[in-house]
Amino acid sequence: MQKKIEHLKVRREQNVREALQKLDAAGSGVLLLVDSQGKFERTITDGDLRRLMLSDAGLESTLSLLPSMKSVVVQPGAAAREEALTLMVRHSIHHVPVIDSSGEVLQVLDRKDLDEQILLSTPHLGDQEQEFVAEAFRTNWIAPLGPNVDGFERELAAWVGVKHAAAVSSGTAAIHLALRLLDVTAGDEVFCSALTFVATANPVIYQSAEPVFIDSEPESWNMSPQALERALADARRRGKLPKAVIVVNLYGQSADMDAIIQLCDAYGVPLIEDAAESLGATYKDRQSGSFGRIGIYSFNGNKIITTSGGGMLVADDEDLVRRARFLSTQAREPVPHYEHTTIGYNYRMSNILAGVGRGQLRVLADRVDARRRVFDRYRAGLADIDAIEWMPEPSWSRSNRWLTAGVIRPDRSNVTSADLMGRLAALRIEARPVWKPMQMQPVFKDKRYFAHDSNSVSQQLFETGFCLPSGSNMSDGQQDRVIDALRGLLRQA
Ligand SMILES: *Cc1c(COP(=O)(O)O)cnc(C)c1O
After folding, report:
1. pTM of model > 0.70
2. Mean pLDDT throughout 447-459?
3. What does the alpha-carbon distance between residue 115 and residue 74 come to, in Å, rounded to a whole number?
4. Which one of 55, 64, 191, 299 is CB 3.0 to 4.6 Å from 307, fit for a cystine?
5. Residue 60: CB atoms within 10 Å
């Protein structure tokens, strides 16, 4: 940054030609005129140089001909960016230097960095996706199925350490198939994490089964083993155990798998692991999504890697995965005359999209590191704001930090998470609330729910929580904008 600023500095004894060359090389649209001490005097734009030449100054004339002028500048601090943007709009300019009290230029703010919309989580392509897709075109493997589908299944299974995988059209489709594979039918109960995206629970309804929602625990924000235990004990008393438990790994962090698996085993209930958000995360050094009888992933556009839309079902049990492929291709019996003995779906992934997935898988480890770094920068940049408490990471967890999530402690600030999101939205920064828990959704209002204890943890997280922009391709400058906005809001409160 400092080096870049040095490239922008010119002095009055330099000539117009040199200034133009500097402007051209820097590509920034603005130069900084400084005195012999290196202190800021004024900005110079290409318009200023053009006007100078039109007033008969030649290329060899020095910049001493430039009139003195009080340039628009801002002082350093949390409000600098916002103030700069206001000034840029008012004066129709694109650059504002940040000058400290001694006249030193710390930074030049660029309007396009300040008012460009920052999104929550955007696709981030690597170098190889196009090659796999091009190969599909070259060999005319455009139809669903094909070598990229086989390759993607094989490579993902190896990556996460599960024996078999079936590539499908979405994470939701994978969950629906998982329920079919476990024979969930009308009237069955399925226990499901309460704090999740609705796609986890919808397939239970597709099967005309009954979801029962299980609260989160504060340590991981994921399924509370103690709530699950109460729900299972209650089910046994009623004489109706659930057909499956669906556990969600929220925002890229694994649930407490040992405790949950122990309970599921004790009651003989199979576990489906919804790892749509947690691909690349680990629990006790083992890959997220590899713990359930069946695991599912999503490659929707906002997930840590994407095929624009897609999903995967994984299991060690080869028969289950073979049957998933069968059900996802209209349940066609292996005979020539289109024979069907059960109802299937059109859920298979296309060979083109699987090509994108293969490329994305090759950069997955980098994407995890990048998202964790985004989280670390937020934490460091806001370390002194004690009203913010980040989503914890228990010792057994290595989250992929798909989304940086936190809460504003109501006992430490009057600012609400709604205020925070409103403020960020006004600054063209997309932030979101924590998922609205399923038991609070109108569509599930009559469903049963087991809270963690006398507290409903998922409800508290919803009421106080927020998610910040977390894309692996966010620039430091974009992140600084988010940090400054939060500091501005929470420091004065
Ligand atoms: C995204 C998501 C899904 C659904 O995945 P799609 O590919 O969008 O169908 C399911 N569960 C959770 C927790 C998700 O975040």
Report:
1. yes
2. 97
3. 17
4. 299
5. 9
The CATH number of the domain covering residues in 129-361 = 3.40.640.10
The label of the residue with tokens 């690349």 reads 280
pLDDT at 25 over 60: yes
SS (H, E, C) 348-402: ECEHHHHHHHHHHHCCHHHHHHHHHHHHHHHHHHCCCCCCEEECCCCCCEECCCC
The pair of three-digit structure tokens given for residue 318, joined into one six-digit string: 């080869």
Least trusted range by pLDDT, from 144-148, 181-185, 404-408? 144-148
For residues 407 and 438, what is the distance between their CA atoms, to the nearest angstrom? 19
Q: What is the mean pLDDT of the chain?
A: 94
Residue 159 above 60 pLDDT? yes
The rounded Å distance from CA 461 to ligand 1 centre is 20
Q: Distance between CA atoms of 260 and 226, rounded to whole angstroms?
A: 9
- Show the tokens assigned to 307: 């095929």
- How many CB atoms neighbour CB 284 within 10 A? 12
Nearest CA-CA partner of 350 in 388, 307, 389: 307
222 lines ligand 1 (CB under 6 A): no
Question: Domain spans of the chain?
Answer: 2-114, 129-361, 364-492
Q: Is the CB of 328 under 6 A from ligand 1?
A: no
We find that the CATH architecture of domain 2-114 is Roll (3.10)
Residue 89: alpha-carbon gap to chain centroid = 31
| Sequence-ordered list of residues with C-beta below 8 angstroms from that of 141, at least 6 positions apart, any chain | 135, 147, 148, 351
Range 449-473 average pLDDT: 97
Which one, of 368, 377, 402, 391, lies nearest residue 484 by Cα?
Answer: 377
Closest ligand 1 atom, CA of 196? 13
| Helix, strand, or coil (residue 50) | helix
Q: Please, what is the angle between helix 351-361 and helix 147-160, to 10°?
A: 30
Residue 477, pLDDT score: 86
- The yes-or-no answer to whether 2-114 and 364-492 have a common fold is no
Topology (CATH level 3) of domain 364-492: Aspartate Aminotransferase, domain 1 (3.90.1150)
Query: Which residue has better confidence, 229 or 59?
Result: 229
Pairing of strands 31-34, 9-10: parallel
- pLDDT value at residue 115: 83
> What is the number of the ligand 1 atom nearest to the C-alpha of 174?
9
What number does the ligand 1 atom closest to the CA of 172 have? 9
CB 273 within 8 A of CB 289: yes
**Mean pLDDT score, 135-159:** 88
